[in-house]
Structure prediction request, 240 residues.
Amino acid sequence: MPVPWEALIPFGLLTTMFAAAGTLFNTSQRLQNQGKPVRYGLDAWENMMMDRDKRLTGHLRGQRSDPIAPEEFATNSAWYTERTG
Amino acid sequence: MSVYHDPSKADKPYTDPTPLPANIPKVQEIGATSAPLKSAAFFLGAYCKDYNEDFMLCKAESRDPGHCLKEGRRVTRCATELITKLRENCLKEFESHWACLENNNQEYYMCRKPERTLNKCVFEKLGLTKTIPGSAAGKPQIHEVEKPIFKAVQK
Prediction:
């Protein structure tokens, strides 16, 4: 009795599609995070630190370990807004 | 109504419309981002303990931002000094530890191996040890436990 291999095609398709979707999602997340795994479980402190990283390096996940900040750091905080009204 | 102009998209360099008064001394802010700071956190605690405690006690008196500027400047200068020393003496171990932290959601328990090399280097060159305040007195600290329960999957 030959094996009904045509019936296994949908299973193969499902597995492939799951794998493809998962890989695509992971790749897109990593591309948005400079090749690093995405940060999870972020609280207010972590979000504040990531915003500070963005002010220092230009990207939320950018890192640098220089002891002195660049001069733009003194004035690139979001506190500076302009009133037009 | 107010409009927010994103400073990073401006074409002219930004000049501060409300600078601090001239009698307040200037201090250069720390340029390290979150992962190197997290890596150096316990050494900052050990090296700058006095200045940190002064600042915390001062803040406990009053939350007014102008009240603790002097203590804050001292904390910043001490931290900048320590980061400079860390980079001079233990640059490779430091960089590898915070790179590992960045790849692991900045969790300490995932990066014990680079942490051990960093702790050893810092102890030899700078004489600082990592002690976790509030850990139980008799038992080994969590970063010194040989077989931890929460650990990285690969050895």
User: Anything to note?
Assistant: The beta strands of chain A are 65-68, 82-83. Chain A touches chain B at residues 36-37, 39-41, 46, 49-50, 52-53, 56-58, 61-70, 72-78, 80-85 (CB under 8 Å).
